[in-house]
Structure formats: C-alpha cells, structure tokens
C-alpha cells in the first residue's frame, strides 16, 4: 500500500466509526473484504439520513435483569455505559451464577478483547454490523506464538451475530513447519458456542484447544490468492490443539460457509490429538484437495480426528483427501450435529433460541 492509500484507509475507517451509520461493513464476500469499509456505502450514508447516533437501540433496551441474566451495553459512540468490549468484560462480576449478555452495538471495535470470563454472551447486531477486530502482531503479543483478535479462554462462552476479524495484511506464503503467526480467534479452554458469526483470517484463524460448536458461521480466508497452476497452501481454517486422548475438546462446524481467497486446509494438527468436524458446510475451491494437514508429522495421522459429513461445494470433494480423513456416517455425525457435542444440555439449552 502506498502511504497515501494507508492514510486514506485510516481516514475512512475512522470516519466510519464516527458516523456509526448503518452499513459500515461491507462484508458479503471476499472481493470487498480487504478493508471492509466501502467508500460508496459511506458516502451514501453520510449524505443520507442518519438521525441521532444514539437512536438505534431497540425499544425497551436494555431489558431488566432477571434471575438468570443481566445485560451490559457497549456502544462505540458512548451511547451506553461502555465504549470498549473489554471494559464491559472487565465489569462482569465473577463468580456469578447469572449469564451476562454483553450487547454490542453496531460498529467496528478495533481493540479486540484479550480476555473473557465464564458465562458471557457477546450479542452483536448482525455480523455485517458489529465487528471485533484486531491488528496485533505476534511479536507484540508477549512472546506467545499466537495472538488472537479475541481470546476465548473461559467456559460457557457464547457469541452471536458478530464478526471477528484479523485486519492485518496477510503474509504471503507459509511453508514447512512453523510460519509467521496469524490468527483471529483464540478459541481455547472451555465450552463455546458461536452462532451466525463471521470469522475472517488467514493462517490458522481459529486455533486453540476449545470445545466449541460453530453454527451458521461464515469462515472467510484472507490469504493471498494462489497463482493458477501452483499448489502452494497459505492458510488453515483451524489449528485445533488437543494434546491427549483424555481431553474432550474439539471444534464442530455445522451449516457454515467457507470462502474467501487463497488455498487453505480445513485444519492442521497443531497438537497430536487435534479434533475437528465439518458438517453440512459449503466450501468453495479455496480448500486444498487433500483437505487437511498433519503438521508434517505422520505419527499424528493415527491420533488426529478429522471428519467431514454432508458438505457441499467445490472444496468438499473428498476424492483426493489425506488418508486419515474420515467421511462420517449419520451415526458418527449425529454426535456433532447438535449442542450435545459440547454438553449443551446443562447450560447451552437456555441460551439458544
Ligand atoms: C460475491 O459477490 C459477487 C457480486 O455480488 C457475486 O457475483 C459472487 O458470486 C459472490 N461470490 C461468492 C463466493 O459468494
Ligand atoms: C461498494 O458498494 C457499492 C454500492 O453498494 C457497490 O456498487 C460497489 O461495488 C462496492 N464496492 C466494493 C469494492 O465492493
Ligand atoms: C459522494 O456523494 C457525492 C454527492 O452525493 C458525489 O458527488 C460523489 O461523487 C460521491 N463520492 C463517491 C466516492 O462516491
Ligand atoms: C427469581 O427470584 C425471585 C426472588 O428471589 C423469586 O421469587 C422468583 O421465583 C425467581 N424467578 C424465577 C423464574 O426463578
Ligand atoms: C457459570 O454459570 C454456572 C451455572 O449456569 C455456575 O454454576 C458457575 O458457577 C458460573 N461460573 C462463574 C465463574 O460464575
Ligand atoms: C442475527 O441477526 C439476524 C438479523 O437481524 C436475525 O434474524 C437473527 O435471528 C440473529 N441471530 C442471532 C443468533 O442473534
Ligand atoms: C495494522 O498495524 C500495522 C503495523 O502497526 C499497520 O502498518 C497497518 O496499517 C495496520 N492496519 C490497519 C488496518 O489498521
Ligand atoms: C445436508 O446439508 C444440507 C445443506 O447443505 C442441509 O440442508 C441438509 O439438511 C443436510 N442433511 C443432513 C442429513 O444433515
Ligand atoms: C472430485 O474430484 C475428482 C478428482 O479431481 C474428480 O475426478 C471428480 O469428478 C470430482 N467429483 C465431483 C463431484 O466434482
Ligand atoms: C458408522 O461408522 C461406525 C464407525 O466406523 C460404525 O461402527 C457404524 O456401524 C456405522 N454406522 C452406520 C449406520 O453405518
Ligand atoms: C442431539 O443429541 C442428542 C444426545 O446425543 C441425541 O439424542 C439427538 O438425537 C441429537 N439430535 C439430532 C438432531 O441429531
């Protein structure tokens, strides 16, 4: 990017936040994803009707606390108590038997959220409206190999109708073994549920050792386009880090969409017992024919669990898949197809509507 373009990008992004107008984020598909602020939209909204920036709350919001739920509200323009997602998270009492719904108004929240707490729901206003993004680099993340835009380390976490975006420019190619850390969602430790979410990243963009169900989510790769005729891989949708057979962790994706740019794996085995299933998911041809990667460690082929079930799209063709990949039958898949895959019964049922 030329300095001019960079400044323009910053300017547009800043103006976008200030305006808090309706269609800030132009997400629908990959072509306009790079900077996700569409100048035309912005222009339209700035000349169109905006009204008060604080008038877009639903009537009766926030609802009164109940025995089981309380609400915190985040708005980037200061229209309610918090302007930063992390500030709201910090205000959640622990321990608390109540679920705290953090209601996050339209806007792009550039500072991510580095910590979560148990029993929290992030409720966005639609994944095209509310986005949490991060522009950290691995080096700045206190020496950790990975740094996520949102780190989900806490139990019983739920996210709905929200985007998680890594807005760093993707690095080009990763090759053998390790490579520059790039990631969006550090989904680690505990049971998590993501519904109607949009997650954008490049290398290993959902990673960690969580036990999570992703339903109706869009997983969009920002990796650099791969020239026709080359076979290089430059990303992976997941890097699940299950380290032993005793851990009941894993990622399940149901009714999702995978698209974007680059050529990526569905997952690679960050740890030997990595476990990931994709079901009823549409995938474009960005998925490499072999589908998955064992982190270049063939001993992991015996212990990883990578399953596919009822997927569609050019990327779902399993004829050239790596030998350890399992095509699940109905019985096997049913274990992953509903909230039972994360012990939904005891806590999740109450938050699903
Ligand atoms: C992206 O959007 C364009 C124009 O809106 C459309 O033609 C194209 O099919 C879309 N691609 C995907 C993968 O949805
Ligand atoms: C921005 O939005 C306008 C109108 O909605 C559309 O015509 C244009 O293609 C979009 N630009 C990009 C880069 O997607
Ligand atoms: C913005 O809107 C004005 C008038 O409404 C128009 O003249 C101008 O060309 C627009 N700019 C862009 C970048 O669309
Ligand atoms: C909520 O708490 C109040 C007071 O502790 C109690 O009377 C009421 O029955 C509780 N409601 C529910 C739905 O549990
Ligand atoms: C989370 O909620 C459950 C019940 O829904 C409760 O047992 C647990 O103590 C809560 N955790 C914290 C840290 O408040
Ligand atoms: C997400 O937003 C859409 C549109 O506002 C709504 O129809 C849908 O029910 C929402 N889903 C969740 C899980 O909040
Ligand atoms: C992200 O951070 C890098 C390095 O600090 C900077 O060059 C880049 O412009 C930032 N991108 C955005 C979209 O803020
Ligand atoms: C298979 O996936 C399609 C969506 O692609 C869905 O409509 C259908 O219900 C799924 N079938 C089963 C058995 O899950
Ligand atoms: C799947 O891929 C194989 C090998 O590239 C090809 O021969 C076959 O036609 C594909 N099947 C479908 C349904 O596209
Ligand atoms: C599904 O696969 C499992 C494991 O391979 C097998 O034990 C079971 O009989 C299969 N069930 C059906 C209905 O095919
Ligand atoms: C969901 O899981 C429960 C418990 O394993 C099972 O009885 C039920 O059939 C599953 N539902 C679906 C739709 O697969």
From TrEMBL:
Keyword annotations from UniProtKB, A to Z: Aspartyl esterase, Cell wall, Hydrolase, Secreted, Signal
PANTHER family, A to Z: ACYL-COA THIOESTER HYDROLASE YBHC-RELATED, PECTINESTERASE 8-RELATED
Active site: 204
Keyword Signal carried by entry: yes
Catalytically driven reaction(s): [(1->4)-alpha-D-galacturonosyl methyl ester](n) + n H2O = [(1->4)-alpha-D-galacturonosyl](n) + n methanol + n H(+)
Single GO MF descriptor: pectinesterase activity
EC number: 3.1.1.11
GO biological process: cell wall modification; pectin catabolic process
Sequence similarity: Belongs to the pectinesterase family.
Pathway participation: Glycan metabolism; pectin degradation; 2-dehydro-3-deoxy-D-gluconate from pectin: step 1/5
Keyword Transmembrane: no
Originating organism: Pyrus ussuriensis x Pyrus communis
Protein origin, superkingdom: Eukaryota
Name of the protein this chain belongs to: Pectinesterase
Main localization (coarse): secreted
InterPro entries in UniProt: Pectin_lyas_fold (IPR012334), Pectin_lyase_fold/virulence (IPR011050), Pectinesterase_Asp_AS (IPR033131), Pectinesterase_cat (IPR000070)
SUPFAM superfamilies noted in UniProt: Pectin lyase-like (SSF51126)
Localization of this protein: Secreted, Cell wall
Gene3D superfamilies: Single-stranded right-handed beta-helix, Pectin lyase-like (2.160.20.10)
Domain spans labelled Pectinesterase catalytic: 74-336
Signal peptide: 1-20
